[in-house]
Amino acid sequence: MIDVKLRPSFGRRKARKMRAQSQQAYDKILPLVRLAPEHVPFAANASEVWLEIGFGGGEHFIEQLRCNPTVSMIGCEPFMNGVAKFLIQLKPENYDRVRVWHEDVRHLLHVIPASYFSYVFILFPDPWPKKRHHPRRLITKEFMTQLWPTLKEGAFLHVASDDQPYVEQIQDVLYGFPGLILCEGPPSADPQTWSPRPEGWPATRYEQKAIKQGKKCAYMCFQKRGRGSSE
Ligand SMILES: C[S@@+](CC[C@H](N)C(=O)[O-])C[C@H]1O[C@@H](n2cnc3c(N)ncnc32)[C@H](O)[C@@H]1O
Predict the structure, then answer these.
(1) Cβ(62)–Cβ(85) under 8 Å?
(2) Hey, what long-range contacts does 130-134 have (CB within 8 A, 24 or more apart)?
(3) Which of 105, 168, 222, 226 could form a disulfide bond with 189, CB atoms 3.0-4.6 angstroms apart?
(4) Is the pLDDT of residue 45 over 50?
């Protein structure tokens, strides 16, 4: 069920007219991998299901698929041009283990079974820097409360941002969130304390743009406390 009161946390659904190749991928491939709520869970036999929220052009998504051939992944992205870009790169042999939720992730979470995801990635969520837009930021206590039951015990959550005030908000929400352990991440929202991207985190387009502009990025890894977790 769609909650119409939600304030969109994304900017736009479509940027410009798509090129023929993108339009073709969008029209032909998306129906093969598009996730419908009635088809959740989509991969009953999967060893693990991972979730990427706001995958943009899919650079990180594609790289994780390449490096983790037994994992199934759901990617959420309302932005058409981003979805098309991802689909162009997606190999047909991976169609079975990929599903795209071409909507707001918050409309998906309530149909996800409990303890479903082993990994969740939220990389460079829209920062909404203007004060009046802060309510549009995705990472809030309410959102985490919604995401929480879908995480397996011992599941990992990766979050990254280059926006200092948003990093502060993310740390307020996630550092000290009951049951969530900080495995790796800066001690504060001061960019002086931020370290380079950890090994094994594929780069994203937004991140590369930020670095080119001379910005630093904060990378945070959390784990849901459980039998296998490190604390
Ligand atoms: C700043 S971009 C970063 C994209 C990509 N992760 C990267 O680092 O290049 C944030 C993306 O999150 C998507 N997004 C924002 N809110 C979302 C939501 N509620 N559900 C799914 N995707 C969302 C936007 O459409 C946008 O493509």
Answers:
(1) no
(2) 134/169
(3) 168
(4) yes
pLDDT class for 1, splitting at 50, 70, 90?
A: very low
Residues involved in catalysis: 126
Structure tokens, 102: 């071409």
Q: Does residue 125 have its Cβ closer than 6 Å to ligand 1?
A: yes
Give, using CA atoms, the residue closest to atom 11 of ligand 1.
Answer: 54
Give the residue-averaged pLDDT of 14-41: 92
Cα 80 to averaged position of ligand 1 atoms, centre (Å):
11
Please, which pLDDT band fits residue 39 given cuts at 50, 70 and 90?
Answer: confident
Model confidence pLDDT, tens digit, residues 133-188: 999 999 999 999 999 999 999 999 999 999 999 999 999 999 989 999 999 999 99
Domains of the chain, by residue range, sit at 35-224
Mean predicted lDDT score pLDDT of the chain: 93
Phi, psi of 84 (to 5 degrees): -60, -40
CB count, 10 Å around CB of 15? 11
Q: Which atom of ligand 1 is nearest to the CA of 79?
A: 25
Structure tokens at 23: 């339009």
